[in-house]
Amino acid sequence: MTTHIVSPKLYVAVFLMLLALTALTTFVAFFDLGPFNTVAAMTIAVVKALLVVLFFMHVRYSEHLVRVFVVAGLFWLAILITLTMSDVLTRGVG
Amino acid sequence: MSEITTGSALAHQFDDAQQQQQAATLGMWVFLCTEVMMFGGLFTGYVVYRNAYFAGFAAASHRLDVTLGAINTAVLITSSFTMAMAVHSAQTGKRTALTGFLLATMLLGGVFLSIKGTEYASKFHEHLVPGPDFEFDPLLRRQAYVFISFYFAMTGLHALHMVVGLGLLGWLVVGTVRKRFTAAYHTPVEIVGLYWHFVDIVWIFLFPLLYLIERHHR
Fold first, then answer.
1. Could you tell me the pTM of the whole model?
2. Which of A11, A72, A73 sits opposite B84 (nearest CB)?
3. Which chain B residues have a beta carbon less than 8 Å from that of A72?
């Protein structure tokens, strides 16, 4: 069996990347990029979340069943947000 | 490291320790999926109203303290790192390091909640709390009210998760001191680690969504 043991060096690298991305997202927010401000903020947040999920939460090394559940959770979240917004944005509500 | 020899570590319904460990991990992920749905409802509501009330959301977001928000993001990320190191220490059977990293994680969690507390206090002083005392530019008052309501609901639910996490970490410290965890058996440490990282991820999205709307204005 043996659960995969991630080396502390990799944890440090991920940690430093997360800190750098936090600085980057804060820095970028003070420039006017039009609609791309939101795109940049969300892209950086997704990258950060992926780093945490894959390395800190060991999904990169986990068995397939766990991955199926992770993807299923995110898939339902995507349905929730996408279908809601496709409704809201096309009805002229609000 | 020694194999599992005690009956307390392996429940009778499992074939072996590996199966038990996998079942626990999968169970935690199922729970985290329900958490995604719970926070997902709030996030979806937020996206709907941010789209409808963008001007008010931007104006109210400017009243939040970006510096404290960014510092808290860094604090929480650091706590995730110390949590990951705690799991590593448990996997390699280093009990002293495990205790140290668990306590460091608790300390950072406490720092996060303290900073959050001072932010909340300043919102009360500035009358930026949902309720009859809410004060804002009359033009955007209603929209800003919705933003601030989302701010308190989302950061409040997140803070509640932090408090629960601190309790779980305290329980792990007690278990570590009582020598419950070994390199062969440390599932509780891994499971609480998953929870703690999940709470970190929620904040990774809350920070840009709440604090960083249209910051380049002014």
1. 0.94
2. A11
3. 33
